[in-house]
Design a protein that fits this description.
Oligomer: single chain
Radius of gyration: 24 Å
Shape: elongated
Helix content: 25-40%
Order of helices and strands: HHEEHHEHEEHHHEEHE
Number of strands: 8
CATH superfamily of the largest domain: CBS-domain
Strand content: 15-25%
Length: 200
């Protein structure tokens, strides 16, 4: 399964000059946790997440210091480019979903934009990947058995059982046929492992 198969698209984006108030509205209206920031030709240059906006609330209320003679005149962020993260982990549309999951886990990121020719075509969140693992065994079995039956002329007749996403196949003992069957089954969303029933 590839990134393009599970990504959310089209993607809600913003420009570097988009106001932070508008970015916050986009997050709430579309029930998303981050907005990719793109330049005038659609190239990815950063991302603004909920966490970036939450940091705004850490600024002290100036009214608390109204009687102080010297107060900070630091300019507060007002647009996306002021708070966006510019180092963004991305994947391509054809990236294997397992690789995407490993990247997100290793880099401790909650979402990754999906790129094609340098442009954002989708975005994958942790929830998108969790949906795969949450598929029921019955749903997985129906889909993979249909795929195996469709290829029976090439592979031979394979039967499958599924428990907790683990697939057990029974069928021809030919190694080539088993390799092809395993490749086919691993492409079904929700499959976490493939085993072959002991011929004995």
């Amino acid at each position: 399964m590839r990134a393009k198969d599970i990504m959310s698209a089209p993607v809600i984006t913003a420009s570097p000059s988009t106001s932070l108030k508008r970015v916050a509205q986009l997050l709430l209206i579309h029930d998303i946790s981050a907005v990719p920031i793109v330049n005038e030709v659609g190239g990815l240059i950063g991302i603004v997440s909920e966490n970036d906006l939450l940091s705004m609330e850490s600024v002290e209320d100036p009214r608390l210091h109204i009687f102080l003679k010297r107060r900070s005149r630091r300019r507060l962020p007002s647009k996306a480019s002021d708070v966006m993260t510019t180092v963004v982990f991305t994947v391509t549309e054809n990236e294997d979903v397992a690789s995407v999951a490993r990247l997100m886990h290793a880099m401790h990121v909650k979402r990754v934009p999906v790129l094609a020719s340098g442009h954002v075509t989708g975005i994958i969140s942790r929830r998108d990947i969790l949906k795969i693992f949450a598929r029921s065994d019955a749903t997985i079995l129906a889909e993979l058995q249909q795929s195996l039956d469709d290829q029976a002329m090439v592979l031979g007749r394979f039967k499958a059982m599924v428990a907790n996403g683990i697939v057990v196949l029974s069928g021809p003992p030919d190694p080539s046929a088993q390799n092809l069957a395993e490749t086919l089954v691993r492409g079904v969303p929700g499959v976490v492992a493939v085993r072959f029933e002991d011929a004995a």
